[in-house]
Amino acid sequence: MQSVFITGTDTDAGKTFVSVLLLEAINRAGFRTSGFKPIAAGCEQTAEGLRNDDALNLQRASSHKLPYNMINPIALAAPIAPHIAAHNLGTRIDMQLVSKTLAALQEEDIDFLLVEGAGGWRLPTFLPSLKPLLNEKEHEDEPQKQPQKAEFLSEFVAQAKLPVILVVGMKLGCLNHAALTFEQIKRDNCELVGWIANQVDPDMDCYAENLASLHALIDAPFLAEVKHGQKSIELAEKTLSQLLA
Ligand SMILES: Nc1ncnc2c1ncn2[C@@H]1O[C@H](COP(=O)(O)OP(=O)(O)OP(=O)(O)O)[C@@H](O)[C@H]1O
Ligand SMILES: C[C@H](N)[C@H](N)CCCCCC(=O)O
Ligand SMILES: [Mg+2]
Predict the structure, then answer these.
(1) pLDDT digits 0-9 by tens, 133-181
(2) CA gyration radius for the chain?
(3) Which of 161, 213, 221, 231 is most exposed by smallest CB count within 10 Å?
């Protein structure tokens, strides 16, 4: 099975929009797919539990049907940075659960697992700098613990050796975001399968020049261009075999 991590130049770059089109294209080519949204912030309370739109969209677009908890193990209600949402609940993001769920998914009978990040590449999963949790006072007399270090979702991607696809949300500011993200993925020793230009802003000035500038900035294969409102994506044979290698 091939697993791929979808990152973006920012939140709202179109990771979910593009992921759904990718899953549908790979389904059409006859492969068994599943989406995975390990960490989702911004959920509705339902009778079944917390539900996130990204995870539901990925679940719907997957040809291999799995229970919600496997598609989205960390579901946080507040639509804010996930580590802050967790902190405000007096808890922290359980990355062990994320790793265990990934391992379980990789045991499933599927050809392609698409893992959608949250926000951009350097999404924090834990930061020690937030003010102490309310119940932390009880532990004041305990010996000082080891200083805690910042943790990022990109570390999980590197540890799991997930190849990465970068979705560039085509809007003003994306050149800087794309260049920084590209450079950091390389510095983190992750494999960049390629990048996708996603036209989130239908009225972007000088779209063609911005696209040409991205080609100059990102030294990785250009996989696809997704126009605003595009309903499906055609993947080149080469791209399909690269994704499913
Ligand atoms: N090519 C497109 N055409 C039309 N609408 C788009 C396109 N790409 C994204 N959008 C819309 O832009 C919004 C943000 O896209 P999306 O939710 O996919 O971003 P994201 O990167 O997944 O964000 P998050 O960090 O919350 O996961 C959504 O309303 C989505 O439907
Ligand atoms: C709530 C939002 N739609 C995303 N799910 C989370 C975006 C987190 C961004 C964190 C940050 O880099 O500032
Ligand atoms: Mg999304």
Answers:
(1) 555 555 555 556 667 899 999 999 999 999 999 999 999 999 999 999 9
(2) 19
(3) 231
> Residue-wise over 40-74: b if at least 16 C-beta within 10 A, else e?
bbbbeeeeeebbbebbbbbbebbbbebebeebbbb
**What is this structure's pTM?**
0.95
Q: Is 111 known to sit in a ligand binding site? A: no
Q: Is 161 annotated as a binding residue?
A: no
Q: What is the DSSP string of 40-105?
A: EES-EEETTEEE-HHHHHHHHH-SS---HHHH-SEEESSSS-HHHHHHHTT----HHHHHHHHHHH
In the numeric block, which tokens belong to residue 77? 């209600």
Q: Give bridge partners of residue 7 from the DSSP assignment.
A: 166
Pocket lining: 14 vs ligand 2, CB cutoff 6 Å: no
> How many angstroms does the Cα of residue 41 sit away from the middle of ligand 3?
10
List domains and CATH numbers for the chain. 2-131+145-243 (3.40.50.300)
Tell me if 118 CB under 6 Å of ligand 1.
yes
Separation of alpha carbons 40 and 80, rounded Å: 10
What is the interface pTM, i.e. ipTM, of the complex?
0.99
Backbone angles phi, psi at 138, to 5 degrees: -55, -25
Q: Which residues are catalytic?
A: 37
Cα 13 to ligand 1 centroid, rounded to whole Å: 6
